[in-house]
């Protein structure tokens, strides 16, 4: 079920909230069970046949986690068994068709295999791999099956993250069982509604509004149509903005929905397009995935504790696997590899010359660093968005030396230039305005909310539960819901 749909907004969410608050009043011990039931219903709305797969995965990993609590040996074998189980599931459903297609291309033998990709398999599989590794490292497993299943299946984060670790959510259960004052609940509901409204606005008003232009340009490239330099860069920037506002909008909505039920999810974005290096970009973009890749892949490979050459190899391996995690296709592998190369160059530069401010201090260096980083990110998104390597090559060729400096996409010439002006305005928004968590700083005291300059203007923008913000959030919800229409666009990360 989509967050940006009428069935969710007017049906599922009111029912889930009504049941939750009723049980909080009459049977507090049943609220987690209720949230698990509605989460499974939320997941099964798309395809009920996927629910047994999710429950089976939860049951097996729950049992494996418990097995680490006894004093018997074989901990490493248990971890290996868990990794094999989880990777086999994701390998079959996500990569079997890709492997079959490449075998056919290499050998000429027809290998027909079409597998339907279950929603959220990448997210709930990574969560459970992290859970087993944490148990292997000595963290106590969760003994209550309902609580463990809730941790994995809680609907705000289930489909597209944030990628939640054990301590992110289960550590909140003891406090959550305690009675809370009406003021506590009012704060959470007000803050959650505001976060949801900001995320919905990002999705339906911004991401969906630029999606059409990106689709037209990339579609033309896939067909081999000639593109001008401006068209190609416009399409690439349009997708750069679409994926940010689409995915960060989902993450904001997920955090807001969790707050409505009294839970706090980790932040997932911190203005990534303000980054002045690729290293900085990956500290800001999809932060929970970056955390997973660092803690559960990069550091076990040796991190930066070994020879510099091995460190660079580890970076490349992690980014290639991170790209492959997003999808079964060579474009994703190349996207991950390109970011791996970017990171290697970034680390090598820092190793040779130190921080950029030591090489060229001042605002000029800051602008040049930002521009180089943003261009690198836009170029890499071309590989991520393109359906085929040939389509990506056509886009990159046009961006480098297109056949003209005209704009035909989006209708008439004037309309095309209006689109480009709109895209330029959105880039300015990304780099100049505070992000959602900065606006919500006063309410998100339990979160890490960095990089909020102290000045009177931003202080006035800060959200607080007052009449002005109540009217503003109500207006945002009304306008966003009005724009949803009867055809709901999926979130980009639903495909991963």
How does this model look, in words?
The protein is 70% helix and 0% strand. It is mostly helical. It folds into two domains: 6-181, no CATH class; 186-495, no CATH class. Mean pLDDT is 87; it is low at 410-414 and 448-453.
Please describe the topology of this protein.
Blueprint: H1 6-26, H2 31-44, H3 50-67, H4 75-107, H5 121-136, H6 145-153, H7 155-158, H8 166-169, H9 173-176, H10 182-222, H11 229-260, H12 278-284, H13 287-298, H14 308-326, H15 330-353, H16 356-359, H17 363-385, H18 389-401, H19 413-432, H20 436-439, H21 456-461, H22 467-484
Helix pairs in contact: 1-2, 2-6, 3-4, 3-5, 3-6, 4-5, 10-11, 10-18, 10-22, 11-17, 11-18, 11-19, 13-14, 14-15, 15-17, 17-18
């Amino acid at each position: 079920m989509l967050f940006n749909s009428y069935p969710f907004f007017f049906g599922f969410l009111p029912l889930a909230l009504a049941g939750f608050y009723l049980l909080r009043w009459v049977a507090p011990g049943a609220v987690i069970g209720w949230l698990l039931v509605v989460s499974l219903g939320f997941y099964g709305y798309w395809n009920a046949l996927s629910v047994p797969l999710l429950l089976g995965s939860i049951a097996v990993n729950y049992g494996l986690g418990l097995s680490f609590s006894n004093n018997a040996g074989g901990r490493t074998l248990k971890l290996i068994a868990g990794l094999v189980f989880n990777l086999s599931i994701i390998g079959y459903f996500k990569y079997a068709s890709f492997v079959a297609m490449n075998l056919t291309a290499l050998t000429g033998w027809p290998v027909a295999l079409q597998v339907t990709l279950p929603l959220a398999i990448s997210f709930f599989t990574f969560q459970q791999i992290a859970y087993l590794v944490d148990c292997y490292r000595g963290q106590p497993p969760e003994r209550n099956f309902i609580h463990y299943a809730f941790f994995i299946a809680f609907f705000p984060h289930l489909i597209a993250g944030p990628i939640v670790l054990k301590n992110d959510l289960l550590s909140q259960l003891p406090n959550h069982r305690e009675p809370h004052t009406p003021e506590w609940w009012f704060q959470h509901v007000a803050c959650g509604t505001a976060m949801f409204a900001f995320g919905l606005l990002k999705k339906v008003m911004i991401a969906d509004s630029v999606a059409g232009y990106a689709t037209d340009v990339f579609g033309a490239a896939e067909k081999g149509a000639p593109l001008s330099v401006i068209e190609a860069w416009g399409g690439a920037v349009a997708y750069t903005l679409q994926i940010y506002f689409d995915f960060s909008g989902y993450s904001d909505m997920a955090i807001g929905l969790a707050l409505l039920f009294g839970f706090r999810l980790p932040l997932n974005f911190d203005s990534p397009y303000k980054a002045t290096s690729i290293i900085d970009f990956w500290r800001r973009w999809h932060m929970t995935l970056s955390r997973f890749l660092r803690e559960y892949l990069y550091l076990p490979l040796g991190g930066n504790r070994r020879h510099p050459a091995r460190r660079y190899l580890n970076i490349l391996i992690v980014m290639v696997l991170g790209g492959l995690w997003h999808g079964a296709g060579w474009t994703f592998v190349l996207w991950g590899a390109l970011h791996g190369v970017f990171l290697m160059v970034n680390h090598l530069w820092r190793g040779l010359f130190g921080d950029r401010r030591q090489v060229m201090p001042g605002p000029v260096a800051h602008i040049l660093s930002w521009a180089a980083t943003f261009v690198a990110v836009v170029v890499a998104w071309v590989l991520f968005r393109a359906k085929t390597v040939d389509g990506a090559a056509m886009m990159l060729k046009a961006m480098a030396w297109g056949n003209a400096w005209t704009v035909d996409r989006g209708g008439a010439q004037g309309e095309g230039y209006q689109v480009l002006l709109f895209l330029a305005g959105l880039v300015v928004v990304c780099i100049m305005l505070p992000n959602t968590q900065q606006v919500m700083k006063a309410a998100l005291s339990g979160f890490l909310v960095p990089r909020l300059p102290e000045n009177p203007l931003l202080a006035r923008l800060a959200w607080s539960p007052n009449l002005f913000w109540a009217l503003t959030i109500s207006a945002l919800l009304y306008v966003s819901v009005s724009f949803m229409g009867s055809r709901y666009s999926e979130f980009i990360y639903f495909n991963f």
